[in-house]
């Protein structure tokens, strides 16, 4: 069966997302948001013993994994405004975790890199993130987790076109 062969029809979607039957607590968007917030809170607690915040941990992971190499990349990946990212990066730079470097060919672009201290801290984060995820997904099968991952990717792709 192809991924689209069981796709919900337009009329089914209209029925599923009927404003007359909307109940916030059952809304898929609300539940995704609640799940995200719950995970973020748990990660915040887990990384606090490393003396960083969840936002700082996310930045370190994004930079170390190559998902973000500029301030603009980081803002896009974290869905955060440039002002917040700039303040966050300033605190991280003062702590000696990251370095911002202007490009010679385009002075508007700031490249981000980790310092040795940033690399050392980033190396500890996968364990903290995985510990939190394992706790929150206790009782889920590997197949359920892969299905959820695929569904979330589809939600994201549906919004990027």
From TrEMBL:
GO molecular function, one term: DNA-binding transcription factor activity
Protein's UniProt keywords contain Flavoprotein: no
Database matches in Gene3D superfamilies: Winged helix-like DNA-binding domain superfamily/Winged helix DNA-binding domain
TM ranges: none
A Pfam family hit: MarR
Alphabetical keyword list: DNA-binding, Transcription, Transcription regulation
Transcription listed as a keyword: yes
Domain HTH marR-type: 25-157
Protein name listed in UniProt: Multiple antibiotic resistance protein MarR
Organism whose genome encodes this protein: Cupriavidus yeoncheonensis
């Amino acid at each position: 069966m192809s991924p689209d062969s069981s796709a919900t029809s337009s009329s089914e979607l209209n029925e599923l997302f009927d404003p007359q039957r909307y109940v916030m607590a059952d809304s898929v968007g609300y539940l995704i948001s609640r799940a995200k917030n719950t995970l973020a809170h748990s990660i915040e607690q887990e990384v606090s013993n490393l003396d960083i915040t969840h936002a700082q941990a996310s930045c370190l992971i994004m930079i170390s994994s190559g998902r973000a190499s500029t301030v603009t990349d980081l803002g896009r990946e974290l869905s955060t405004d440039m002002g917040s990212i700039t303040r966050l990066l300033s605190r991280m730079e003062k702590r000696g975790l990251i370095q911002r470097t202007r490009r010679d060919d385009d002075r508007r672009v700031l490249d981000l890199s980790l310092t040795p201290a940033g690399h050392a801290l980033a190396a500890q984060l996968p364990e903290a993130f995985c510990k939190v995820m394992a706790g929150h997904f206790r009782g889920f099968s590997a197949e359920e987790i892969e299905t959820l991952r695929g569904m979330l990717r589809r939600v994201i792709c549906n919004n990027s076109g």
